[in-house]
Each structure stands twice: as C-alpha cells, then as structure tokens.
Amino acid sequence: MKTKIFYIFTALILSNSSLLLAAPITFNTALPVAKDEFLFRQQFIVNQAAGDPSGANRDRTEQSSVTAMGYGINSRWAVFGILPYRDINLDLDSGGQRINRNNQRFGDLTMFARYSAYQKNQLGKTFRVAPFLGLKLPTGNDRVQDSLGVLPQAVQTSTGSTDVFGGLVFTYQTLKYQLDTQISYRLNNKANGFEAGDIFRLDSSLQYRLWHSKPKQGLPHYLYGVLETNIINQSRNKLNGASDPNSNGTRIFISPGIQYVTKRWILEGSVQLPISQNLNGSALENDYIVRAGIRFNF
To answer: Closest Cα partner for 119 from 128, 106, 130, 132?
Structure first.
C-alpha cells in the first residue's frame, strides 16, 4: 500500500510543472517553468587551471557566483537571465619573477528564451524537446588595468562583445531517473580587437533516484545521484584578426554530483573532471571545476 501511495505522489509531481524536479547541474533542461512562476538559482563555482605547457608556470583560479532567474510566460515559453560575479587570479613567471594579475567584478549578462516545442506525458514519465535562443550582452568591463597595464583577456571578466547562442535540449523523465541532453552553439563576435573562438557543446546528464522520504510525511523529498558528461569544442581566439595558435581546443569532462530535491528547493553539487584535453599549442589545461548551488521556485 505504501509503495502504491508513493508512486501516486510521484506521478502527480511529474505532471505538475509548478514543483521542482531533478535537473542537470552543468547545463539546461527542457522541463518547463510554470506559468507566472519564477525559478531562482544561485551557483558557486571554482575553476582551477594550472596545466601549463608554455614554461610560464601559469596558475589561473576563478571563483564565481552565478545568479540565474527564470520566468514562465505560459506552459511553453520561459525566459531566463544569468549574471556572474567573477573573481579571477592568474599567477605566472615573467622576467625572472612571479607576478599576479587579478580582477574581481561582474561579468556579462546572458539572456535567453526557451520554447517547449514537443512534449509527451504519460503516467510516471514525460519526454520534452525545447529549443532555446539567446544573447550574451557586454555589460561587464573588458578593458580593466592594473599597475602593469591592461589585463590579459584570461583575467578580464568580460569579452566586450555581443554574442549569439542557441540549441536544443531533450529531457526524458521517469519515476526512477531523468536523462537530459543538450546540443548548443555560441557565435562569439569581436570587440576591441579580440574575438573569442566559437563554442560547440554536447552535454548529457543522468539523475538517478537513490532515496526518497516516506509519503506519509507529505510530498516526498528525493536524493539523486548525478553523472554528467560535457564535450566542449572552442575554436581559436583571434587578436586583431590573427588566430592565436595557443588557445582553446576540445575538452571532455565527466561530472559526478548529487542533488537533494524537495517540493520548492534543490541543493546540489558536482565536480567536473577533465578526462581528455586536446588543446591547441600551449593552451592552459583545466584541473577541475567545482559547483555548489541552490535553486527554488516561487
């Protein structure tokens, strides 16, 4: 009897878009935001990169606080805004001494719209397909200086350009697990002589339910184990029209994580670990990316 009650509760949750559900940690989902509701998400991210083949012994650490807000216009349309606060430190050897370049300020605002183009709902499971399209706006400062002059682009919190991106996200959810896949492309433009390379991404996420509270306590809480993969290919940057042979390439990450899901809020965390980095020239390699966050709707 208890099992039957639990599955009835869970089926109701899957059919009610005003309740929070498991979701990817490192990218988007096709699940809707309920009409006239807001979805708030705060993530704290540490990105460590110290694999330097150039001989300059570069060590770059970025700590960022990323605020995201979504709004459900209706059952199919949702709009989102994302604003990061970035704290970047770069240590390197130069002229026989160790120097530090750092920058702390808000980055660029990202805005996008998502449309639920296809959905098939059945008892205890749902499948959704949602295209999205957006802009990254140059709201940050890309010409910050320190005592040594203008900071290198790796330490700027903004690219200074207006960039366009879009893609498709697929979500399949059952009572026990959820699968999400995203395909996206970002077209980066030039500003102040610098043009970041375009980015193609293929992301996938599996969220598997490990535990749930007893239905008699109300709508269940869930504990999900999460495993994600991220394939990120970025073409070479350009400076004054010339391609930088020591920038970008293809990175593949595997990201184990965990989520605690309630009716209105989610606690989550993951670690992105590089399993392949096929980079150009002496491009700096990632060591890890740690993410922790909370999201809730209202």
So the answer is: 128
All structural domains of the chain with their residue ranges: 2-297
**To which H or E segment does residue 28 belong?**
none
Residues 182, 67, 175: CA angle, nearest 5 degrees: 45
pLDDT for the residue 212: 87
- 2-297 under CATH 3.40.630.10, yes or no: no
CA contacts within 13 A on the Cβ side of 230: 21
φ, ψ of residue 125 to 5 degrees: the values are -160, 155
**What are the tens digits of pLDDT across the range 202-221?**
999 999 999 988 766 667 89
CB atoms within 10 A of CB 34: 16
Residue 6 has pLDDT above 50, yes or no: no
Exposure string for 221-238, b = 16+ CB within 10 A, e = fewer: ebebbbebbbebbbbbbb
100-110 pLDDT per residue, tens:
999 999 999 99
pTM reported for the whole predicted model:
0.91
C-alpha distances (whole Å) from 183 to each of 27, 72, 137, 160, 204 are 10, 22, 21, 25, 9
